[in-house]
Design a protein that fits this description.
Shape: globular
CATH topology: Rossmann fold
Bound molecules: adenosine-5'-triphosphate, magnesium ion
Number of domains: 1
CATH architecture: 3-Layer(aba) Sandwich
Strand content: 5-15%
Number of strands: 7
Distance between the termini: 31 Å
Strand order of the largest sheet: 3-4-2-5-1-6-7
Structural class: alpha/beta
Helix content: 40-55%
Radius of gyration: 17 Å
Largest sheet: 7 strands, mixed
Order of helices and strands: EHEHHHEEHHEHEHEHHH
Number of helices: 11
CATH superfamily: P-loop containing nucleotide triphosphate hydrolases
CATH class: Alpha Beta
């Protein structure tokens, strides 16, 4: 599998990584690009969204431990072209060991090599340690959601610094796909100010034009266990938004296949 492998990661928790992975995965597959979402976070938020609650939870954990095959763990969703590799059944006491195991890209990489999707999205846990480092070590790109809240832009540097180290020591092909502003609240001056400073300070090649607003429909969608696009007959406007973001991402991937981005630390 030589297509784009995109690690969705952030230093901060709760900024919208899983929401981005799920809804972008749906949008990319709706646009005709077979996509697999790989869940790396033992919190199992994605599996909770996409899978029936009583489904057996074999997943990545069992694949890397040799307890099941990739073929058996991979879930083909009802949406044509969209599949999910759930994280599996990770005992909370075992989670630190699992993170350590996944921090080695030589453990995660061969599993991902076995996927035949055109695009692979990696839903990382928060923080730039453990499984996130393994994901960066075996990905072609990193995609960083930034919550439109004060101080959140500052933590982006931590991801960029980690990326620079990973590029130097493990994965020279890793590049920054971009930053997506998430949970923008147009009624909150502080949120507006984050968006203004992102527009002012960030290179337009880095910041995606599509901004995801704060909207209760995201919470409702996660309660119903579906992507936001499924929250209306036809397609919900928020689902359409992710198709626009997917279009931007596909454009960048086409460009970056020819020219890899320069040193990530100079981008902010
Ligand atoms: N645009 C939005 N508007 C309102 N709520 C949102 C929005 N995006 C995400 N949420 C909600 O915010 C919470 C956190 O989102 P999400 O789980 O995607 O973040 P995360 O970065 O994956 O978190 P973690 O670091 O714990 O993995 C979820 O309850 C989600 O439904
Ligand atoms: Mg998450």
């Amino acid at each position: 599998m030589n297509g784009p492998r995109i690690a969705i990661c952030s230093q901060k928790g709760g900024v919208g990584k899983t929401t981005l992975a799920l809804n972008l995965g749906l949008a990319l597959s709706q646009l005709g690009h077979a996509t697999t979402i790989v869940e790396l976070d033992p919190q199992e938020s994605l599996a909770a969204s996409l899978l029936r609650p009583n489904r057996s939870m074999a997943g990545l954990h069992e694949v890397v431990r040799g307890g099941t095959t990739l073929e058996d763990a991979l879930v083909h969703t009802k949406v044509s072209g969209l599949s999910l590799l759930p994280v599996g059944d990770v005992d909370p006491l075992e989670a630190p060991d699992f993170h350590t195991l996944l921090s080695n890209p030589e453990v995660l990489g061969p599993v991902l090599d076995g996927l035949d999707a055109e695009i692979v999205l990696l839903d990382c846990p928060s923080g730039i340690t453990g499984a996130t480092l393994g994901a960066l070590g075996t990905s072609t790109h990193a995609l960083i959601p930034v919550q439109a809240e004060p101080l959140s832009l500052r933590s982006v540097h931590l991801v960029l610094e980690a990326m620079a180290r990973v590029r130097e020591h493990q994965n020279p092909g890793l590049s920054l796909l971009g930053l997506v502003l998430m949970m923008f609240d147009r009624d909150a001056e502080a949120s507006l100010e984050v968006v203004r400073s992102a527009w002012r300070d960030l290179d337009p090649d880095v910041l995606f034009e599509t901004i995801v607003p704060r909207n209760p429909v995201y919470l409702e969608a996660s309660l119903h266990g579906v992507p936001v696009g499924f929250m209306a007959a036809g397609i919900h406007p928020e689902g359409r938004r992710f198709q626009m973001l997917a279009g931007e991402i596909l454009d960048r991937l086409a460009v970056k296949e020819e020219t890899h981005a320069g040193p990530v630390q100079t981008l902010l």
